[in-house]
Amino acid sequence: MMFAAATIAIFVAMLLVLVRLYAGPTLYDRVLAANTFGTLTVLLIGVLGFLTERPDFLDISLLYALINFVGTIAILKYFRYRAIGDKGANRSDVKVEG
Amino acid sequence: MSGLEILRDVLSWALILSGGFFTVVGAFGVWRFTDFWARLHASSVSESAGMLLLIGGMCVQAGFTLVTVKLIIIGIFLFITGPTATHAVANAALVSGRRPIEAAGLVGADPQMPMPNTLSAEQE
């Protein structure tokens, strides 16, 4: 019962964040919303594991937390340098989008 | 139902309800706030406070098991990476020339002039 309440709360929060992800006027609003959505997904997977009485889902949840963080940093780095692998040798040439 | 179980249920109900409350409030702020910099604050509410309370509630419900250890690991990881990712987003927006409306007239409010300690120190 208490995990059902938490699931509903997380679903509502995810819906609100999705609206911002769709509407957000700039790139950074969307990255922020995507990051928040990822954190909420981690929580949702954990709570769903408890709701269905299979807490093994927590491994998936931990993996999702790792991927979410790396993905956010990768997106930011890509839009800053237009490349993920390399450092962006000449910074004065870098054009910043936004 | 023994007294200890009732205490445990009450404690985890309180933690999970308050965690859900903070999560929804933070997401509501992400949805409704007008400024990007204000939305940063709102997202930290659901990312830090709501996350920690929900995970604490799940820990209380799980008891002394391996599940609690995993939950604590997830909590520590999210507690470190959440503010780091938020700071990375904020720094990227600042470097791209975005400034808060309230900063008009203050030091560094001109997007053409890099803020102290962001770009100029690394370029040399």
Sequence-ordered SSE layout with sheet pairings:
The complex is a heterodimer of chains A (98) and B (124).
Chain A: H1 2-23, H2 27-51, H3 57-81
Helix pairs in contact in A: 1-2, 2-3
Chain B: H1 3-32, H2 36-62, H3 66-95, H4 120-123
Helix pairs in contact in B: 1-2, 2-3
What report would you give on this structure?
The complex is a heterodimer of chains A (98) and B (124). Chain A has 98 residues and is mainly α. Chain A is flat and about 45 Å long. Chain A has one domain (2-93). Chain A has three helices and no strands. The mean pLDDT of chain A is 85. Chain B is an all-alpha fold and 124 residues long. Chain B has one domain. In chain B, 73% of the residues lie in helices and 0% in strands. Chain B has helices spanning 3-32, 36-62, 66-95, 120-123. The longest helix of chain B is centred in the first third of the chain and has 30 residues, at 3-32. Chain B is elongated and about 65 Å long. The interface between A and B is large, with 49 and 52 residues.
Shape of chain B: elongated
Output the structural class of chain A: mainly alpha
Query: What's the overall geometry of chain A?
Result: flat
Strand share of the residues of chain A? under 5%
What is the beta-strand fraction of chain B?
under 5%
Count, helices of chain A: 3
- Give the tally of β-strands of chain A: 0
* Amino-to-carboxy terminus distance of chain B: 68 Å
Low-confidence stretches of chain A: none
- Summarize the helix and strand pattern of chain B as letters: HHHH
List the uncertain runs of chain B: 119-124
Assembly form of the protein: heterodimer
Overall mean confidence score, pLDDT of chain A: 85
What helical percentage do the residues of chain A reach? over 70%
Most extensive chain interface and residues per partner: A-B, 49 and 52 residues
Order of helices and strands of chain A: HHH
